[in-house]
Structures are given as structure tokens and as C-alpha cells.
Amino acid sequence: MKYESFQTFDIAVENGIATVTFNFGSVNVQGQEMLTDLNSLAMRLERDRDTKVVIFQSANPEIWVCHYDTELLKDMSTEAVSREDARLLDLQSVCERISKVPQATIAKLEGFARGGGHELALALDMRFAARGKYKFMQMEVGMGILPCGGGASRMARQTGLGKALEIILSAQDFDADDAERLGTINKALEPDEIGAYVTALAERIAQFPAESINACKQMVYESIDKPIDEALKAEAYWLYQATSKTPAVKRFTIADEQGLEHDIENQRKWGDLVMQVQDIN
Predict the structure, then answer these.
(1) Which of 12, 13, 93, 243 has the lowest tally of Cβ within 10 angstroms?
(2) Can you tell me the distance from the alpha carbon of 135 to that of 141, in angstroms, rounded to the nearest whole number?
(3) Is the pTM here over 0.85, yes or no?
(4) 263 pLDDT exceeds 70?
(5) Do the Cβ atoms of 3 and 48 come closer than 8 Å?
(6) Quick one: pLDDT band at residue 39, thresholds 50, 70, 90?
(7) Could you tell me if residue 4 is inside a domain?
(8) Does 218 lie in the same domain as 196?
């Protein structure tokens, strides 16, 4: 799969890991150019079973991705529409498509991510932020609108109701430690630690079967807002999507025949064993 000819970012692919580096103008503004690139990227990732992890980072030392382009926002309708006539915005559609790609997606946040930039980060699977460099904000309420790139919807799922409203209604900056406390990121890290941490995580995930990565991801997204009985059915459905396309049963059979699970030493070192079984295909 070729990942080239993008205007707003560059991509390098190595050992099943694609690294997307935003580098567009002075502030990585999130405009039509970036949305077009992200949509094209999603289309390619959807067809790619060799790439298993995608890291999103920035070449700009201060900004990950800027807010949505005000050139586009000023043309919004000033007329209210009915619920039936409401249509998804481009930013909503693109972020949703990115969120559903079969790869594990990671935001490496080493600069500002405000407005639409933060909403793009929320659409990714995992987020890690550098202390002293990262800040996020949803400023929309102060402008007279609301987060409209999936921010309001994903925020509450990520943080819970009260914290989501604190973030959205305050329209203020939060740093990496705030983000970890609020639940918008997985972990806050020192600037000299974030690179190695994200790389190690990506390299570990990239050794697992592509179809089980996708099944785990789709199951979690599908089940999060379902009643428990429907969520359990979703788990069962995605389980068999995985077993039908991965060497899972072969791995379990070998483990059973060799009595591996009954060895206390194996129970003590599962973190290593799960990597060793990747050789069984």
C-alpha cells in the first residue's frame, strides 16, 4: 500500500507501524486540505492488513493539530434546521471514519490540540501527552457554537458527564496532567519519555495478528453504548471474526497439548509468553 502525495502530513511505514507526521503551514490548521488527506488516509488504511498500528505526531514543536479552519466556519448556516434535516459535518464524518480503521491508532501529543484538533485526537484509540508541552481546549462555547467534530459525543464517553461538561463549558486550557486526571488521555509522560513509550507500545501491538487487533477494537467501540446483553452478543460476534482469520485455535491447541497453562513459571511470565506465541501461525 502506497502512502504518498499528501499535502498536510508525511507518512513513514516500517515493521507494520505507520507514522503520520502533520506538517502543514505554521500551525497545522485543520481545514479542507487536512480533511481530504485524512479521508484518503482512512481509505488506504481500510484496505491495508500489513499495517497494524498508526502513530499520529507533529513536526511542529508547539502544535499537534490546530482548531478547525475559521474560513470554513464563517460560512455555517445561521438558520436552525429540524432534527430530520440535520446532516453530519465534514469533520464529524472524517473523524468517525478514522476512528473505525482496522489498525490501532495512537496520538503522540507534544503540543497544543485545541478545538477540532482535540476532537481528532479523541477519535483515535489511544492518546499520550508530554508534560510541559501539551495543552487542549474546547473553546466552542465561547464562540457561540459547540464541539462539532464528535467532541461533545466522544468527550462524555471518555470522561463521564460532569468532567465532559467542565471541559466543554469552561473553554479553558488543560495540561497533560489535567488530561490524565479528566480521562481524555491514557497517560501523561515527560517529554524525554513519550517517544520511547509510544514506540514500545506500537511495536508490541504490531506483533499481534491484524484481524485480532481489528476485532478487539471494533468490539470495544460497538459495545460501549449498548445494554449489557447486546454488548455480550457483540463480543461473541467479534470473537468468531477473529478465530476465523487468525491462528488462535492452533495456539490454544499447542498450549493445551504441552500443558503450558499448568506450569506456575509460565503463569509468572505471561507478558513474555504472549509475545513468544506470535511465532505460531
Answers:
(1) 12
(2) 18
(3) yes
(4) yes
(5) no
(6) very high
(7) no
(8) no
